[in-house]
Specification:
Layout lengths: L3 E6 L2 E6 L10 E8 L2 E5 L7 H11 L6 E3 L5 H4 L2 H7 L5 E2 L2 H8 L2 H11 L1 H6 L13 H5 L4 E4 L8 E4 L4 E4 L4 E4 L5 E4 L8 H13 L5 E3 L3 E3 L2 H25 L4 H15 L11 H23 L1
Parallel strand pairs: 4-5, 5-6, 9-12
Antiparallel strand pairs: 1-2, 2-3, 3-4, 7-8, 8-9, 10-11, 12-13
């Protein structure tokens, strides 16, 4: 399947990437900033859609990249880095220091992905390694036309990228899916290991930039950035309250209760109301990721 290209703001393109997984349409995105003075990419998607991404970049009229930024190294965001750096060898790769070694030697990352995500992880495809010299040097980072924000929470190797016009939040602001009629579906991206205080502090750092426009890794753009980040912050606190209450009542083991707790959250979290509007195959995808996020909260609350 070919990538979709959506110009969403001046100098800003969303490239939609669809791996061969049912229900993954309009879910994984790479962002391209194209100005006369600078061109850079935020996230590259999975390895299996690398050719589609490169074709889309060329269709937009880009023959060089000044930077390739990875919000984090999970394979749905960084899996195509090997192919993309081979096509744009002059572009330094911006990656959190806690993740860069996995780009040079991705085998452990691959094994961990398959263990956690199973067939979904395999469908993303294996990441090709990059040379250590491709990682951006301190002087290159200092000259970058954006600010890097350390935002652990979703992952310890997570960066957000603050451009002069846009904030690329990765998954630090959750997963936000647009719905018909201007409504949204917003959920946490809190897989194990999860630490609530770390995620809240990350959101606070994002809010310090006072963003008007937030660009999500999953999926799309919001022009009420500060309000969205605040809503997500409150959502995390609501999940803590709901799940702590549910866990206090339980007589079974958490592993037996995850699906039930997902159902409770779908009933009690107003930001999940849009779930009912999702197509059945997208609901199936979201139930999987909701369960993974609940497991992160359960681990946090149990500890």
């Amino acid at each position: 399947m070919s990538a979709t290209i959506r110009p969403l703001a001046p100098h800003l393109f969303l490239v939609g990437l669809t791996p061969p997984i049912d229900g993954f349409e309009d879910f994984i995105g790479a962002w391209l900033v194209k100005r006369p003075e600078e061109v850079y990419l935020i996230d590259v998607g999975p390895a299996v859609t690398a050719d589609e991404l490169i074709d889309a970049i060329e269709t937009i009229g880009v023959d060089r990249l000044d930077y390739i930024c990875l919000t984090h190294i999970h394979l749905d965001h960084a899996g195509a880095i090997g192919q993309v750096t081979r096509h744009f060898p002059e572009a330094p790769v911006v990656c959190h220091p806690k993740g860069s070694a996995h780009l040079v030697n991705p085998e452990q990352l691959w094994q961990g992905t398959v263990k956690t995500l199973g067939e979904t992880g395999r469908a993303y495809g294996r990441m090709l390694p990059i040379a250590a010299s491709a990682i951006a040097r301190p002087d290159q980072l200092a000259a970058a036309p954006f600010k890097i924000i350390d935002t652990p929470g979703h992952a310890p190797h997570h960066y957000a990228i603050a451009d002069k016009d846009y904030l690329f939040a990765g998954e630090a602001g959750g997963v936000c899916l647009p719905l018909p009629g201007g409504q949204i579906y917003l959920r946490p991206a809190t897989p194990p290991r999860f630490f609530l205080e770390t995620s809240l502090a990350s959101i606070d750092r994002l809010m310090e930039t006072k963003p008007e426009i937030v660009c999500y890794g999953h999926y799309g753009i919001r022009r009420d950035g500060m309000a969205m980040l605040d809503r997500h912050r409150e959502q995390l606190l609501l999940w803590k309250q709901i799940l702590a209450d549910q866990m206090g009542r339980r007589r079974d083991q958490p592993s037996d209760a995850i699906d039930r707790w997902v159902r409770v959250l779908l009933e009690e979290d107003p930001l999940l109301n849009g779930f009912k509007q999702l197509a059945p195959k997208i609901q199936a995808r979201e139930r999987f990721f909701l369960a993974n996020s609940v497991k992160g909260f359960v681990g946090y609350l149990t500890a």
